[in-house]
Amino acid sequence: MNVTARLAQIAKQLPDKEAYVFREERCTYQQLDEAISRFADGLARLGIRRGDHIALLLGNSPQFVIGLYGALRLGATVIPINPIYTPEEISYILHNGDVKAVIGLDLLAPLFVEAKKRLPLLEHAIVCETPEGKEKGISLSEGMKS
What we know:
two-stranded antiparallel ribbon, 4-stranded parallel beta sheet
């Protein structure tokens, strides 16, 4: 049994038990499993398939958990990248990781747009909103949107 199957099993056995608490947010195993399934379905609609490489540029957060398990549920290879790496380090990992999609914070959107120019395999940037990013009005350019 793999980790995503085990999580789905726990969600059936203990649907109302808390899976995590993050700041003020509480999430049950059932809610988490549903969010993971929705995310995996969204990745599949973008054309992400088993064996594709997905980069996660997220810190310790619910988005990291959902992104990780959602990609694994599809059979994608996940490449976690520390979001405090320099732009050069991140670009190096994206390039050498043959990344098809990157999931990251909206604060990193300018980096994704720049990386797209040099990374022919990078097709999708999935952006997770942050209060800081919304405040600054950060979003992806039209050329990078999926």
